[in-house]
Amino acid sequence: MRARAWASILRRSMSLIAVGTLAFDTIETPFERRAEVLGGSVTHFAHAARLFGPLEIVGVVGNDFPAAHLERFRALGIGVDGVEVARGKTFRWSGRYEQDWNTRRTLDTQLNVFEHFDPRLPAAGRRARFVFLANAQPAVQMRALAQVEAPRLVVADTMNLWIDIKRGELEELLRKVHGLVLNEEEAHMLSGRRNLFQAARLLLEQGPRFVIVKKGEHGAFLLGRDVRFALPAYPVEEVVDPTGAGDSFAGGFMGYLASVENLDPATLRRAMLYGTATASFCVEGFSVEGLERVDRSRLEARFNELAALVTP
Ligand code: AMP
């Protein structure tokens, strides 16, 4: 894309809001261990989506969360008026990656202040047209969504924990969203089907108009009523930490859609490329280190490389 066209996308203020977790993550990879780094589903999502314009986030942190983190969010164009600071500890999650990077084991999840979180959307957020419900309890996702006055596109993410313990709520959520983003294992857990197409078809019957199934380093599939698209992951030379790859994929995908305000099948396919290119920066560092380093021109360059890679 030409620099001028890109600049006009950025000048436009996006109408995007996301709700999810802000966290301290402890991560073990085959090479390294990092304790209590900044993480959370909405954190990764926002650091990706902000590449397309400003957005608002909704979540909760404890009083152990440094104010400097929230200032940094603001400096990057991530509005934090919807982030509540509650008495208690911030959500914590820890996970370990096996040698193949594709298998991740959750070692611990501590909901802490997130357990009784009641999301309150700031006025600008209630008017948002694009809504991303990042990984969180489905009841929290639905309470946030209920406050948005006239959403044009609502996409939700989820995780094995919620499929295990909140399946009823999750099925209710599926009836209220246009898009669902989940990984292969979660698609299997939720639908009972191993075959990707069968799993997606069953999930589409439950409400959403499209489902995106992420397959880690093997890429992502978009399956909708009138669109089908598959894309490999961008081949990163050195993976440092895949945590947040799914959320930053969603951030690139939704950020692009919110910036162009279009949902036709060709735009959805381009959004898949933006999601994939954005996620590739996330895995190049721990926490948000990889995403913080990116600017528009590097993202555009990777988008073009990926487009060239999949064009005959
Ligand atoms: P991803 O690698 O895209 O699946 O996202 C990982 C991020 O999600 C980490 O930064 C965690 O803090 C956060 N996370 C992990 N488990 C949960 C959960 N059950 N609900 C919400 N967020 C979570």
Q: Give every kind of bound small molecule, once each.
A: adenosine monophosphate
| Portion in beta strands | 15-25%
Structural class: alpha/beta
Instruction: Give the % helix.
Output: 25-40%
Number of strands: 13
Distance linking N and C termini? 19 Å
Shape category = globular
Radius of gyration based on Cα positions: 18 Å
- What is the topology, as strand order, of the major beta sheet? 5-4-1-8-9-10-11-12-13
Structure description:
- The protein is 40% helix and 24% strand.
- Residues 6-11 have low confidence and may be disordered.
- Helix 3 links the parallel strand 4 (55-62) and strand 5 (78-86).
- It is an alpha/beta fold.
- The strands form two sheets. A nine-stranded mixed beta sheet has the order 5-4-1-8-9-10-11-12-13, sandwiched between helices. Strands 3-2-6-7 form a four-stranded mixed beta sheet.
- The chain has helices at 3-11, 41-49, 67-75, 123-126, 138-145, 160-165, 167-174, 184-191, 196-205, 245-260, 265-282, 289-292, 296-310, and strands at residues 16-19, 23-28, 33-39, 55-62, 78-86, 91-97, 104-110, 130-133, 153-157, 179-183, 210-214, 220-224, 228-231.
- The two termini are 19 Å apart.
- Helix 2 (41-49) packs across helix 10 (245-260) and helix 11 packs across helix 13.
- It is built from 13 helices and 13 strands.
- Bound molecules: adenosine monophosphate.
- The site of adenosine monophosphate (AMP) has 17 residues, from strand 2 and helix 10.
